[in-house]
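[step 3/7] fold_predict: job queued, chain A
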Amino acid sequence: SRSPRRRAHQALCDPYKPVRSPTVSSRSTLLPADPLAMPLDDSTAERFDPMMLQMAQQVAAMADGENAINLMLDLYFGFLRRKTDFFSSPGQCKEAVLSAYQRQASIVERERKGKEQEASKRAAKAAATAAAAAERETAAAAARDVEDGARKSRVKQIELDRQMAQQKLAADGTPKIQEVTEDEAQEIGDATGNDAADIPEAEEEDGDALTPGTIMPNTGNGGEAEHYTWTQTLKDVDVRIRVPAGTSAKQISCVFKKGHLMFGVKGATPMIDADFYAEVQTEDCFWTLDDTTTVLLNLSKKSDMEWWSCVVRGDPEIDTKKVEPENSKLSDLDGDTRSTVEKMMYDQRQKQMGLPTSEEQAKQDTMKKFMEAHPEMDFSNCKFT
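[step 4/7] structure written:
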């Protein structure tokens, strides 16, 4: 019968073939048909990991500068030499060792290819994501260019309209009235086919018309200028300024003074360098880089009792009579501010209907009481304004 050493030799030389009974007399062992087929899967082999790790740690501790892997392999084959007859069939055992190496190498290669494929998929996905982001940014940039171009065109037209309206005003700001003689009036009548007496008088002021040289406020009770748009409440003004794409916070130059604003990108001509419409509280003013194309300025008004017609002098002005504060927020205001806002809203509605404002009504009431108190006086030829 075979000795335990011989049976161990058979198991080590041919791990794919069951160890024969001691009564079997055969020295021949065969490699499996598929040398790369794993005799043990990883989940089964991992049961031996603690023992192998303990041995590896001990070998590493005694390596003393030597290659620990080489030392461990030498230790293992030394064990086979001393305790088994592994080397009694060198050729067959060498093939078994090479087959074991090839099996593990094939797993490593398979995992490497799998990682490369995953990396390739991730790279393709990242490239697709970057391409989509670049496409969106290109579309956003194009939209910004269109928006900025349209805004600048509107601002240019607003300035032309303002200049035209200014030319039609007298020095005191009232509409110019051109006086004509009777002969000139007759000539106008002959040219238009109307009798001079039939020439209509100037139409009464339209309460819904904008103040000459102004524009309608936007939904935020603000307006727009060449480089920015703005909104306001009674207490604050928010200004959104367009800056070149990719601008960083370090490149922004912004200086708040109580009556002046200077804003721009370092190294370039300031976009804004003008006086505020009214004074601000500089300690409560600040700016933030909203994104790489927009800077948001928050201005705290010194007086919270008036609406601004523009952010800085010289830029297009809105018609403050058309401002529409949010009624839902009146309850949030203190008593004095709320009274002021309600008075402004009342006066605005009165003007739109062609009726006297609260101050004009107070003057009329005072005059009425004076007239009632002095019936002896004749006021029939008096004109009241």
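[step 5/7] annotate
Residues 95 and 136 are 60 Å apart (CA to CA).
The radius of gyration is 47 Å.
exit 0
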